[in-house]
Amino acid sequence: MCMVIFAPLFAIFAFATCGGYTGQLMVSVDCVNRTDSNLSITVRFAYPFRLNQVTFTVPTCEGRQQEQLHLNGDFSSSAEFFVTIGVFAFLYSLFATVVYIFYQNKYRENNRGPFIDFIVTVVFSFMWLVGSSAWAKALSDVKLATDPGEVLLLMSACKVQTNKCGSVYGPVWSGLNTSVVFGYLNFILWAGNIWFVFKETGWHKGGAARYPTPAPEKQAAAFNQQPYNQPNYNQCTFGQTGASFGENGGFGQSDYSQVGTYTLSGPTSY
Ligand SMILES: *[C@@H]1O[C@H](CO)[C@@H](O)[C@H](O)[C@H]1NC(C)=O
Ligand SMILES: *[C@@H]1O[C@H](CO)[C@@H](O)[C@H](O)[C@H]1NC(C)=O
């Protein structure tokens, strides 16, 4: 669990932009007999995109008669699935952050915390991928179904050549496009985190411990020497901070000075 800041934030962006969406489009029907016309027919729709329940009334251009129409399609399952994943990912990442920061010992007890965290992270990654793909597909269908040109095709008045039908404006999609982008960003974030959570489980320990310490990257050597079962703060987003903690001797070194014989940077340990 090292996505402390990004995971809840990205989840909020994904589900809020989708779940909070309302859109509208406007078309005009200009009948031969002008008194029957309606030049500002407004159709409003919103999350969860049960478009077949969105009704609107349009003139038929035959006297005062009007007809009631509805849009086509029901995209609620994909939209609700996506938002549900977002809400649960948000809640879980908040919960995991609290556990990781404040209950570090409990988290590591019997390795249960890392194990559960690993499983949940894998599941959420998969869910984000499935949910984002389903929602992306549904969104392209929603765009088609609410295209003013498509809506005009539903109207009997517009099948008569002498009536003039036109699109005034279509829905704004930036919010929903954002939700899809953040859906995939969440997938990348969670999938990328699998590796870090996997390291926490210690399943790779057996192999890794046998290798001589390669002292990778810019980290202080002292920090690499710390036992693997200690809280390993210098991962993922904490990477640079963790390293600098080590060099200043303020955080890591005093605790692990027994392994400090190998340090390159720690005069305090001698
Ligand atoms: C045109 O349609 C809108 C709804 O789309 C309705 O509110 C308005 O009253 C209609 N105008 C006329 C002149 O019928
Ligand atoms: C136009 O419509 C009005 C009311 O619906 C009707 O009284 C009138 O006769 C119609 N005019 C034509 C030319 O059809």
UniProtKB/TrEMBL annotation:
UniProt KW Membrane keyword: yes
According to its UniProt record, where is this protein located? Answer: Membrane
Q: Which UniProt keywords apply?
A: Glycoprotein, Membrane, Signal, Transmembrane, Transmembrane helix
What residue intervals traverse the membrane?
81-103, 115-136, 181-198
Q: Does the keyword Transmembrane helix apply?
A: yes
Task: Supply one GO CC term from the record.
Answer: synaptic vesicle membrane
Note the InterPro entries from the entry: Marvel, Synaptophysin/porin
Q: Where is the MARVEL domain?
A: 1-202
**What is the membrane topology here?**
Multi-pass membrane protein
Q: Which Pfam families does the record match to this protein?
A: MARVEL
Q: Which domain of life is it from?
A: Eukaryota
Position of the signal peptide: 1-18
| PANTHER family linked | SYNAPTOPHYSIN, SYNAPTOPORIN
Indicate the family of this protein: Belongs to the synaptophysin/synaptobrevin family.
Name of the molecule in the record: MARVEL domain-containing protein
